[in-house]
Amino acid sequence: DAGITQSPRHKVTETGTPVTLRCHQTENHRYMYWYRQDPGHGLRLIHYSYGVKDTDKGEVSDGYSVSRSKTEDFLLTLESATSSQTSVYFCAISTSARSTDTQYFGPGTRLTVL
Amino acid sequence: DQQVKQNSPSLSVQEGRISILNCDYTNSMFDYFLWYKKYPAEGPTFLISISSIKDKNEDGRFTVFLNKSAKHLSLHIVPSQPGDSAVYFCAASIGDSGGYQKVTFGIGTKLQVIP
């Protein structure tokens, strides 16, 4: 299994509070991704990173920001959490951006915004 | 507008029988297709893929078939085992256009293999 951890694994927070989720990898992969999974929507890309301090938006980036100060860490921040951001969040990594290059997923973080 | 559709939310199959999971897509530019498997409380794991230049790819008990004219692919699992019980995501992407190649996921099909 690829060395990917996510923290926390579960979090309950209140509307309007900031939340940061962490993804940590030990594989030294260049690309890192944040997805959210919701019923009826499958996996949707929030943001991705193609190197330290290099990030770009995905299809559902509104309300989220990311940072990558080290190769191994990719942080997802909800500046002011809303109930619509209740979801399961998955981090993924890959060696390249090519879709033929397998993405390896972390175990997920279940976030509930009350 | 979902470009990758998995119209069966769930499927039950007897152990030893064949499981067939279906996926349809609408974007004719997609040229690479993947299947991921997901167990509860875990992240998805890559299962098998197929390029649009092929119509079949096989890996052990898993075979993916691609029908480009119908914009349809299917995953066959033979024989099905209880450990195959999971959610299966179909995914598709557009080929090498430089930079990040977005992967579009379907909503998943939950497979239950009954012992």
Largest sheet of chain A: 7 strands, mixed
Rg of chain A (C-alpha, Å): 13 Å
Largest interface: A-B, 27 and 28 residues
Mean pLDDT metric of chain A: 93
Low-confidence stretches of chain A: none
Bin the helical content of chain A.
under 10%
How many helices of chain A? The count is 0
Q: Mind explaining what this structure looks like?
A:
The complex is a heterodimer of chains A (114) and B (115). Chain A is mainly β. Chain A contains no helices and eleven strands. Chain A has strands spanning 4-7, 10-13, 19-25, 31-38, 42-51, 54-57, 64-70, 73-78, 87-94, 104-105, 109-113. In chain A, strands 2, 4, 5, 6, 9, 10 and 11 form a seven-stranded mixed β-sheet that branches. In chain A, strands 1-3-8-7 form a four-stranded antiparallel β-sheet, with no helix packed on it. In chain A, a hairpin with a 2-residue loop joins strand 5 (42-51) and strand 6. The termini of chain A are far apart. The model of chain A has no long low-confidence stretch (mean pLDDT 93). Chain B starts with a strand and ends with a strand. The model of chain B has no long low-confidence stretch (mean pLDDT 93). Chain B contains no helices and eleven strands. The interface between A and B is medium-sized, with 27 and 28 residues.
Primary descriptors:
A: 114 residues, mainly beta, seven-stranded mixed beta sheet, four-stranded antiparallel beta sheet, B: 115 residues, five-stranded antiparallel beta sheet, globular
Task: Give the helix/strand layout.
The complex is a heterodimer of chains A (114) and B (115).
Chain A: E1 4-7, E2 10-13, E3 19-25, E4 31-38, E5 42-51, E6 54-57, E7 64-70, E8 73-78, E9 87-94, E10 104-105, E11 109-113
Parallel strand pairs in A: 2-11
Antiparallel strand pairs in A: 1-3, 3-8, 4-5, 4-9, 5-6, 7-8, 9-10, 9-11
Chain B: E1 4-5, E2 10-14, E3 19-25, E4 30-38, E5 45-51, E6 56-59, E7 62-67, E8 72-77, E9 86-94, E10 103-105, E11 109-114
